[in-house]
Amino acid sequence: MSGHYEAPIREPLIIGHKTYHDITEDIARPIEERAGKLWWISLYAALVLFLYGFGCIAYTIGTGIGAWGLNRTINWGWDITNFVWWVGIGHAGTLISAVLLLFRQRWRMSVNRSAEAMTIFAVVQAAIFPVIHMGRVWVGYWVFPLPNQFGSLWGNFNSPLLWDVFAISTYFSVSTVFWFMGLIPDFAMIRDRAKTPWTKKIYTFLAFGWGGKAKHWQRFEELSLVLAGLATPLVFSVHTTVSFDFATSVIKGWHSTIYPPYFVAGAIFSGFAMVQTLLLIARKVCHLEDYITMYHIEIMNIVIILTGGMVTVAYATEYFIGWYSGSRFEDFTYLSPGAAVGPYWWAFWALITCNLIIPAFFWFKKVRTNIIATFIIALIINIGMWFERFDIIVINLSRDYLPGSWTMFKPTIIDVGVYLGTIGFFSVLFLLYARTFPVIAQAELKSILKISGETYKAKEGDEHH
Amino acid sequence: MKLIKQKKEMSTTKIVYGLYADDDDLMNGVKAFNDKGIAINEVYTPFPVHGLDKALGLKKTRISDAAFLYALYGVTIGATVTWYVMNHDWPQNIGGKPAFDWAHNMPAFVVPMFELMVFCAAHMMSLTFLVRNKMYPGAPAQNPDPRTTDDKFMMEFVTEDVESVKQLLIETGVEEITVKDA
Description:
Chain A is mostly helical. Chain A contains 17 helices and no strands. Chain A has helices at 20-32, 37-63, 78-102, 108-133, 160-193, 197-207, 214-247, 259-285, 294-324, 337-341, 345-357, 365-368, 371-398, 413-436, 442-447, 449-452, 454-464. Chain B is an alpha+beta fold. Chain B folds into 2 domains: 13-46 and 151-181, 2-Layer Sandwich (Alpha-Beta Plaits), CATH 3.30.70; 63-132. In chain B, strands 2-3-1-4 form a 4-stranded antiparallel β-sheet.
């Protein structure tokens, strides 16, 4: 293992005096132990939310999207806000697993599995919104260029909405494949220590016969590298394409060249905030403090500072242009002097407070190395990023080109219900995942134990002095 | 007569498993066997051991070359579908964006073409990986000892000269030796 030297002054990524077997035990424990009370309570709560949301979705499909608070002026509302919010959250997972793999960032190994799970579950939630927004969901497959008997009924490939169909579905399926391929050796580990016949059967099914042969590991590493290479442009392309939904339109406030990079930065910003929210809980509940260390938390907070800074620059640019253009329509865009004092002033200031002011506290080392502060700020960023999408959609649409049709958006209980339902659905999936999947890529982690493990680093440090 | 001879030959060929507790010992073992010119049939490890493929003299895998071909296939599908739908089968002027010919309209098709490229490359490469490794849902475990997915490293030999293999294994710090009939 001497090929991968790491300076002793670097913080260890695995704390404590671990052996390879300890890693196996620590990662398999949450799967093999019985679930605690807290897990069951959380699952029931999430299921209730999910069922409520499911009811609201059923009502929407049965009644039509008139059940939502949309009107003729504001024809996109909570649905697309939630869609963009969930897709954005999904970005951190692939960024961690793919981009950081290419950059050889070893700290990713403790967090990539859960971050990818979060990605996949978030994209599932995101997909719900445009699908039910179609109204007649049963003809939803018309968006795909399938051979049909309707003559001219092909999708319109000039439309960013169709690009988005391709972008989101590719992102979802490629992320899932990437995630699953990485899981195979870890499923094999669970399979080989399974005690009950059912566990053995299930994990044998999932492990695909993996045996850890030298040639298989060689192919596995090549596959991971190439999939990471393929997924990296995918991370950037997905939110770029989502931003095209807005940027290629002729709506003021949307028709903006800054959107693609700004959306991607915002997506990573919100994604990392959600990773922090989920991992801080998972770390505590599954006792993974030795693997997801303070160093991991701090470094993710630094990514939040970076992407938050990019978002801040984008906000400042939009605000400046809103004023500098001198156009009276630009004065009603979501980031403009008009928006700051207009009827949606509260949404404007919620965005500024949650995304600009509060995350800036991460510049202080004391704050970004404090678990409670990190958790609270991450939650606030999640709220702030929701408001960003709400502002982009609702504030921009509420003041259109005809003052006579200016109006406000009032969400109905169904709007709220569908949103809460997706949060419930997401939580159900994540809770089930945390109990049945190896939440840390243990095979990968074992490969860095001798480089980044505390015991080994201490030994190496002694040898050098 | 021939059958008996074969049987006799088979009975002298044995499978020897050497179980190491540490990856550094395993690597030293591999080097020692290479020096002696004894062929290692297979090595099972719980994680990718750095440099093992080179030490075993494994050829570079070609699945990334295959992925490149799959990516080309994906782009071709994307180009064909966009041309067929937008320029050939039913050209339309939607929102003032007329369909002239594929070359003129292509910039609008970059996203779907790119997505199809990634889609085909990623999925078909993963399938190739599974097929080449003889892996499928529910396949029986390919490792002879369940400890090799936990913390042990196993060398497998198919040999007639069991004693010299055993001796070298012991010299290189093996933890456990198992001999089976082939």
